[in-house]
Amino acid sequence: MRKVLVEPARTRDDEGMSLFERSVMLHTGLKPEEALAGLESVVKRGKPFAVDLPRGDVPLRGIIDGRRFTVVRRTQYWNTFTPIAAGEVVEVEGGSQVLLRCTMHLVPFVSLIIWALVCVVMVIGLEVNDALSGPLVAVVASPAVGPLAGWLLWRFELDALVADVTVGLTRRVR
Questions:
Q1: I need a labelling partner for 99 at 20 to 30 A (CA). Which of 2, 34, 51, 134 fits?
Q2: What pTM, to 2 d.p., does this model score?
């Protein structure tokens, strides 16, 4: 049971965390309209991935369309691997719930795949030419640090994104 300042909220990892996705079920005692009003109070309207100034007054940016939303944390100026969260606020007995699905944006995902493939091709090419030995292994392995760092940045941002969305959905706006 997780408590948020304004309204109690329960979270539950539904499908756990796969390599590039995390799904979390959020529950709040607020009606869908109240939950969406709270979310709107912490979201700057705009495309999820756009050039943005430092976050300032609200932590999220994205699109809210009816009861559906797609948001990201406003940290793009230093982390292009910021996860994207999508969900729909559904009315349930005693309040609302949202299945929040956090994924990696297609552009950084494709970048990671291409980068990793280039590393594999380099290793295979050097192995075929019998040039893979000693310090050269470190030179070939060092480009693999980039995709790993990008993936780690994405993983570290997941909890912060879920927390920001949870606070928004459980915030009572007067």
A1: 51
A2: 0.74
Phi-psi map region of 154: left, alpha, beta (phi>0 left; psi -120 to 50 alpha): alpha
From 70, 39, 43, 36, select the one nearest 58 (Cα to Cα): 43
Kindly state the tokens that stand for 85: 């969260």
Dihedral over alpha carbons 161, 145, 78, 113 (to 10 degrees): -70
What integer is the mean pLDDT of 77-98?
87
Torsion angles phi and psi, residue 54, rounded to 5: -50, 150
In whole angstroms, give the CA distance from residue 154 to residue 112.
Answer: 12
What phi and psi values does residue 6 have, to the nearest 5 degrees? -90, -45
Q: What pLDDT digit, counting tens, does each position of 35-51 carry?
A: 999 999 999 888 877 76
The CA distance from 111 to 50, in Å, is: 18
Between CA 165 and CA 161 the distance in angstroms is: 6
